[in-house]
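Box 3.1 A note on notation
Throughout this textbook, protein chains are presented in two layers. The first layer is the amino acid sequence; the second is a token string describing backbone geometry. Keep the layers aligned when reading.
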Amino acid sequence: MLPDGTVEATAANEEHILVNAHLDVTRAALQSATGATTYRFTRRDIETIPGGDNAPLNSVLLQAPGVAQDSYGQIHIRGDHNEVQFRLDGVELPEGMSVFGQTLMTRFAHSMALTTGALPSEYGFLQAGVIDITTKTGSADPGGDVSIYGGARDYFFPSLQYGGHAGKWDYFATADFVHDRVGVENPTPDFNALHDLTNQYHFLGHLRYTADENTRISLTAGVSNAEYQLPNNPGQQRQFANPSFLDSALSQNLYGSVDSASLNERQKQITDFGILSLQKDMGNISLQSSAVVRYSSLGYSPDPLGDLVYNGIAQRAQRSVFSSGSQTDVTWHAGAQHTVRFGYQIYVERNISKTDSTVYPQTGTDADGNAIFGDQPLSVHDGNGRTGWLYGLYAQDEWHPVRNLTVNYGLRFDGVDEYTHSKQVSPRINIVYQPWHGGTFHAGYSRYFTPPPFELVGGTSLNKFANTSAAPATLQDTTVKAERDHYFDAGFAQEILPGWHASFDAYLKLAKNLIDEGQFGSPIILSAFNYRRGQVHGYEFATDYTRGPFSVYGNFAWSRAIGKDITTAQWNFDPDELAYIQHRWIHLDHDQRWTASAGGSYTAFYRTGHPLRLSATMVYGSGLRQDSDIPNGGVIPQYATFNLSAVQSFQDLFHIPFLKRTQLRLDVINLFDKRYELRSGTGIGVGAPQYGLRRTILTGIEQRF
């Protein structure tokens, strides 16, 4: 390695780089997105977003068309709740227990792509959007990098990465630690939240062995460990989940004994994963076969008295899911006009759920029929575990019948044997036509099958909570079902001038057993349920322009997501809500009509050793849903937030041989200190109110070596 951190151009190094570049191209060709819509984030794109590698992954993805933000770090793509699939180097990660925070960090990514629309048959299970992260490697990101980033609200974010290669080996590792007081969104509009400390650490390691010019073995492993204080909302007076408790004698005795501003609720999340892959190129046939494991757990610790007083239940909850499986993708260049792809995915998963609850017993009813509760709490233990299977097979043909026309058609067969048991054969077809240079039309249809999230479906023993302060409004609990969709998509993309692109896309999803998720109760653990019918449709527009040191982009999207008749997990809902929704369409709680984002950057002195990069981003949302006189009938007020960034680089600031590029950065998040709500605390499956981050100033220094 040369003193400036670049790889010495020896014959061996050149061969290593060329061979790995060839294998990278071959691997990318295994996951064709013909006919779908793909939005790409290059390394330059990631670095120009305020925060760069320090920015949360969801804030990067918000710059893509049709991506709406929600609380707990969640995103919604094209009106779906959480049907987002993450892949590392083309290998899908099984779902985990993450509710807020990030298991995968932006720092892991050399580049990434978001693919939406009518997906080809190789993409199954979670299909609202496929986020494929190309991880950093020793060849693409050689050398070391240490940074310290921080600022307001005790924000402290040190990180370290190092990569390189020796002979046939290629290695890369990165680790970071996050400490701040903005772990979960503030339930009040105040500048700082009460009781909101978080400590997190993350690690990603990547080791590759290139046996020859056609064979590569890689191992990727990651760890995420996060602890959160759940922020408090002062002035709360709600007593128990059961409204009749408000007027009881016990309520009067307990009222005032606990202050909602001083509760001590905590949550811990752990995720570990590993991927072992073999990639082989055999001329007309290439393949990648991978073994995948992922362990994910979530634990909630209540405030023993506070949760009992305010919610009627203090519940210590623990959930975990261990997934192991295999994924293989094969590409066969059958001829000049046909490229055949086929493969499979299969996972075995073990889900465990345990709760220890403290509740008040119901001792009778008063003259008005309201419940009367005793003052001696009861303990209720509940737990269950289940092992299940998830599997999918696919085959597709990319056919070029005539010049400038591509037809991609195929079939999937998916099945799930977990809490629910079902399967489906899904045809898919996409047509892509390029009538002139730089212009592309596409149209497609995909039949989708989405299993319910195994880790979010539990077997709660409702009868254990009967005649207590935690008694559900209804004891009906139908098992969550797999969602089945008809998905239509069409669009057009055009290169207007060199460096200037624009695209338009429209979509429609008709769903049976539409899956939605919500938070019910104090533990921030989402639970899944079904609407018998669902409809989602919308359109997107995106444009970008890059020339030399200047780049700018912008996009907007319109979406409408509605559902009718909640048919599963009914115990989470009020009977009046169920009765209203049974025969009427309502907006889904995450339905946001208008979503937009924009950004730009300019690099001054970019041909020198001390470039200065200035960048800005904007996010606009017309507001998610809240209750009015009907469920989800209202809209949260619209908002727009702006972020700024300045990064000054120096090629050899310290004049020390082994220290090279130095970067100083200043980021301002929510420049105009906009007060805006993400959630109002009302709506189907909505927990506490959630407000966006107030103005935050962060600085950092990064040193290459």
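The chain is about 5% helix and 55% strand. The chain has a mean pLDDT of 90.
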